[in-house]
């Protein structure tokens, strides 16, 4: 039987402790009633991003309203052992949504949208806040699908220099570039040979449509990033980061 999962921002631990029922937001209620055609009494899973998940029972009322009654907290996490931050060059709407969704499914811990010289999309503060809220919703839906109980942190869009500075303390910093002589596999193998402790945080920088320009690549290298390649083919911005993340999870993470 399919495990239906719903994300709620409400603090679920308090609701469970006090025996309170929680109303599903209208979009979630419409989805479980109209799309999934669930009935009252159906067992579903609820999570709030604060740790673990909750067994719950669905209650459907009139006028398209739905409620859940929490039954039990389960301390289950499905987080990757790799603490990956993705610096993703801003690209057009659907491409960024794709990256947010797939990066979440692949276990990224933090995503930073980055404005670059070749970014087609440029966001001011107001539009940036709106897009960030939209991307968090995309990530929450991806968590519902893939089983994660912790949402990745999605930063507001940053300019290129600020984005590099935001990860300056992290140990392994990689930037994808087709001209790199070092492969992703080699960079990860070298890191593993040098470290015997648990994996430390790593950063992956991916350019937008058209890639990073020469000045940005130079600044990234001066900031401690190592250029790495993925092979003989040049991938689109929405493909490159996701391919690299999948490779990292296979090489050193939890994909087997």
Walk me through the structure:
The chain has 256 residues and is α/β, with parallel strands linked by helices. Helices cover 37% and strands 22% of the residues. It has helices spanning 12-18, 26-35, 93-105, 125-146, 160-166, 184-194, 214-222, 237-252, and strands at 5-7, 21-23, 43-47, 53-60, 66-74, 84-89, 110-115, 153-154, 158-159, 172-176, 202-206, 226-228. The strands form 2 sheets. Strands 6, 7, 8, 9, 10, 11 and 12 form a 7-stranded parallel beta sheet that branches. Strands 1-3-4-5-2 form a 5-stranded mixed beta sheet. The longest helix is centred in the middle third of the chain and has 22 residues, at 125-146.
Q: Which secondary-structure class do the elements indicate?
A: alpha/beta
Largest sheet: 7 strands, parallel
Gap between N and C termini: 25 Å
Oligomer: single chain
- Count of DSSP E strands? 12
Specify the number of helices: 8
Rg, alpha carbons: 20 Å
Shape: elongated
Percentage beta strand: 15-25%
Poorly predicted tracts of residues: none
Query: Could you state the order of secondary-structure elements as H and E?
Result: EHEHEEEEHEHEEHEHEHEH
Give the helix proportion (percent range): 25-40%
């Amino acid at each position: 039987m399919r495990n239906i999962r719903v994300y709620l921002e409400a603090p679920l631990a308090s609701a469970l402790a006090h025996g309170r029922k929680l109303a599903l937001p209208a979009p979630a209620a419409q989805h479980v009633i109209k799309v999934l055609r669930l009935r009252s009494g159906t067992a579903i899973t609820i999570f709030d991003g604060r740790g673990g998940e909750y067994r719950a029972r669905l209650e459907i009322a009139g006028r398209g309203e739905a409620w859940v009654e929490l039954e039990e907290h389960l301390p289950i996490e499905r987080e990757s052992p790799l603490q990956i931050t993705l610096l993703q060059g801003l690209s057009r709407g659907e491409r960024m949504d794709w990256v947010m969704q797939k990066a979440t499914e692949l276990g990224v811990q933090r995503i930073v949208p980055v404005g670059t010289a070749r970014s087609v999309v440029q966001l001011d503060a107001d539009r940036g806040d709106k897009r960030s809220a939209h991307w968090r919703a995309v990530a929450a839906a991806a968590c519902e699908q893939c089983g994660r109980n912790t949402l990745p942190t999605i930063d507001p869009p940053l300019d290129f220099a600020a984005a590099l500075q935001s990860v300056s303390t992290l140990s392994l910093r990689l930037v994808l570039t087709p001209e790199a002589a070092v492969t992703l596999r080699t960079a990860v193998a070298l890191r593993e040979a040098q470290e015997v402790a648990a994996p430390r945080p790593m950063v992956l920088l991916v350019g937008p449509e058209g890639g990073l320009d020469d000045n940005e690549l130079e600044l990234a290298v001066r900031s401690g990033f190592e250029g790495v390649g993925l092979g003989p083919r040049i991938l689109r911005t929405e493909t490159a980061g996701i391919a690299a993340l999948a490779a990292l999870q296979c090489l050193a993470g939890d994909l087997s």
